[in-house]
UniProtKB/TrEMBL annotation:
InterPro entries: Homeodomain-like_sf (IPR009057), HTH_TetR (IPR001647), Tet_transcr_reg_TetR-rel_C_sf (IPR036271). GO terms for molecular function: DNA binding. PANTHER family: HTH-TYPE TRANSCRIPTIONAL REGULATOR YJDC, TRANSCRIPTIONAL REGULATORY PROTEIN. Gene3D superfamilies: Homeodomain-like, Tetracycline Repressor, domain 2. This is TetR family transcriptional regulator. Pfam families: TetR_N (PF00440).
Length: 200
């Protein structure tokens, strides 16, 4: 009769939430396995058994972060017009990067800031995640253009790149201590350059 494996000694999602905090504050390169095991409350063998290694733990943490902290992106994409998509995307981004009780900024940006040459795979992973989000915006704006919500000469990819660039800047500013109300004003100013914004 086969012996059943030992049950996990910890809650995986709770452990990932703790890993998110460490990677967010210290970056991937600045986080050691000891930092992780202490924060997650697990032994190294348990971490290896559940996640594989530090790299896979980070990737799982980013996946969970996207599911929870970046759920607003999917909600923004469901707005009825391109302008409303852009507005909700930027303003909800400000809320996300200044959430009380969470580190300021964005894990997908700050997580790779301390990465060295040996962490090239992590840098690529984060870049691919950001590119994927940008592609979703571009696809949404392409649909908007197809139905006449955006002018035919507007480039959906350029608009998506613009919003992604602004949102990254908002995250960096939040991490540097910029207050939420100041970032709201920046988002409002950035929206003035988006097609369809009424002229004051």
């Amino acid at each position: 009769m086969a012996t059943r494996g030992r049950p996990r000694e910890f809650d995986v999602e709770e452990a990932l939430d703790r890993a998110i905090e460490v990677f967010w504050r210290q970056g991937y390169g600045g986080t050691s396995l000891t930092d992780l095991t202490e924060a997650m409350g697990v032994s190294r063998p348990s971490l290896y058994a559940a996640f594989g290694n530090k790299e896979e733990t980070f990737k799982r943490a980013v996946d969970r972060y996207a599911e929870i902290d970046m759920a607003y992106v999917t909600e923004a994409l469901a707005e009825p017009t391109a302008l409303e998509v852009a507005r909700r995307f930027l303003f909800d981004n400000v809320e996300a990067v200044t959430t009380p009780g969470r580190p300021p900024g964005c894990l997908s940006i700050q997580g790779g800031l301390a990465a060295g040459p040996e962490d090239a795979e992590i840098v690529r992973f984060l870049a691919d995640r950001r590119s994927g989000g940008e592609a979703r915006l571009a696809e949404r704006f392409a649909r908007a253009r197809a139905v006449g919500d955006l002018a035919s000469d507007e480039d959906p990819a350029d608009l998506a790149k613009y919003l992604n660039t602004v949102s990254a800047g908002l995250a960096v500013q939040a991490a540097a201590g910029a207050p939420r109300d100041a970032l709201h004003r920046v988002a409002e100013r950035a929206l003035r350059a988006f097609p369809g914004t009424p002229t004051p």
